[in-house]
DNA sequence: CGGTGGATTGATGAGCATCAAACGATGTGG
DNA sequence: CCACATCGTTTGATGCTCATCAATCCACCG
């Protein structure tokens, strides 16, 4: 099981730079900075290599994280190894924030990744005196809930093609630079995010390519050529 | 579409009493009381008939609710009428709490239902001065997120039988009285919650019945006779 | 330039959806 | 009070979507 999901640890960083810098501070995506900046908390940086675990499911939630560069997947496993990825975390995104003492999903670096982190306890403490911080923590969790609710609709009711179209539009929104997106994750990750197999994901992408809706520059660099038609497929 | 989902409005209350009283105040389930009691907010009561809409998707979130008696479904629709129910709300449960100004799922009474409600604005105001209230609102949203994360795993990766087993154990935990559960919702609701058709739900229940894992007293009154075997099926 | 992990493509089949009909329970009107 | 209408549930027959198994293919890296 672990074997099935664990690919080549100890590999060097890919030479093509995938995953950009952290989002500018104006944006909704840098929710974390709004806290640490405001309260003047000490934020440390730490790096993880590709496929390295950041924390495990049900592990004590000692830290809260923010992606600086790289990408992270949060997931749950069934006992036989089936995996559901609940979210991808990209530069600027906070993750690992819990209102209870344990993490509910595991987290791994998808590629070499640098994070900023603060102790959960210090955030809790700040929230206990500063109501603005408390409000911000709630907003982060509420944002994750919104994503999860949208994703339940996708997993429960959308067809394979609709799921892939939704995924492409989400990634386009979140990480496209100059109309091109550089996906940090492999087809298996995408499948485990969308509740599909990697083969089904690949077939859907090939079909969209054949219809001219997207273009490839290598399997992980995708250009959307017709967002309107993707929106239609999205249902 | 609306037609497909709307069944017999204006029907009388069922004579079998389904859905119990509100949970005692000690419990984790009465999260709402902990707030309204603490802050001394004015909570009104209101009733909805079976299948009546409480609020629609993307409607302004003016109130926050708590089920007193009855049951509520929260759901999203695709444009062609496919529906995903994100959660069932039972007596004691809060619902409709948002950190943004609009509801992201619609809510309907499953059976005749009474709710307690408070204005969202007054909760926000209380949270602005009382950090305990702010903490409680966060905890409610975090609890909903946890449920959604578990449900994503179910929708993305579990088989039909595993989904039904998980559902039965959830409902057993939440509404069983004296070993018996009186389900307020129909097979279609269960299917739309589990990402299945009503026929598949019915077949799974029949199979569990044939194996002696559960007993029926009418389609909606179920007794679990072997929770251990259900847990095994749950994967 | 060869090696390796990831991606694509193909062949086949299983699980669940769909379509259809019968059954059952609940409430109504004669 | 019983026959009937109605809505919900069960059960059956069939087919489609997507999973599985398998074989290249391709990009990236040493």
TrEMBL record, chains A, B:
UniProt keyword Transcription, yes or no: yes
Highest taxon listed in the record's lineage: Bacteria
This protein's GO CC annotations: cytosol
InterPro entries: cNMP-bd_dom, cNMP-bd_dom_sf, Env_Response_Regulators, HTH_CRP, RmlC-like_jellyroll, WH-like_DNA-bd_sf, WH_DNA-bd_sf
GO molecular function (one): DNA-binding transcription factor activity
Keywords (A to Z) from UniProt: DNA-binding, Nitrogen fixation, Transcription, Transcription regulation
Gene3D superfamilies found in the cross-reference section: Jelly Rolls, Winged helix-like DNA-binding domain superfamily/Winged helix DNA-binding domain
CDD domains: CAP_ED (cd00038), HTH_CRP (cd00092)
Residue span, HTH crp-type domain: 158-228
Record protein name field: Helix-turn-helix domain-containing protein
